[in-house]
Structure formats: C-alpha cells, structure tokens
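Render DNA-directed RNA polymerase subunit omega in 3D.
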Amino acid sequence: MMLKPSIDTLLDKVPSKYSLVMLQAKRAHELEAGAEPTKEFTAVKSTLRALEEIEAGFVTIHPDPDEKRNQVLLRKEAERLAREEEERRIKEQIAKEKEEEGGKI
C-alpha cells in the first residue's frame, strides 16, 4: 500500500524527518482545535490532512522560531488588552445606565 503523500515529496519540503514529524503534529493539533484549513482535503484524519498541507507548501517551518514566538505573545497580549478595554467600556455603560435610572425614580 502506497501512502499519499509520499515521504520523499514531504522531505523535499522540510530539512529532516524529525522536522517533518514536529510540523505535522503541530499542524494536526491546530486542525483538531478548529484552525482554518488551507485547502480541500482527500484525507479524513487530521494527521494526514496536515501532511497534505505540507506537501502543497501551505504549511512550512518558520525561518525564525523565536520571532514567531514573540509575534504570538504580542498578539495574545493585544487580544487580552482589547478584552479588558471592552469589559471596561461595558462596566462604564452599566454604571451610566444605573445612574440615569436613579435620577428617574
């Protein structure tokens, strides 16, 4: 039985078998968690879907992992700050509405 995609075509995309396994596992976890797929799949399992994406060239190893890590941390911090700002605005709106209701009674 021939597996698709083949290991030879996949190793053309990544430097080593270890890198391939790590990239496949990370992408499979992302797909399982609900990440947006980059293409239509023929496979059903997320691990094989990840391999299809790697073979197509849609998923690659980031050239600077530390920079990628920093970008992820910055994005998470920005999302946290945005949530806090939204929560603050909601609390202010509630306080304002309560104040207006207090004057009407």
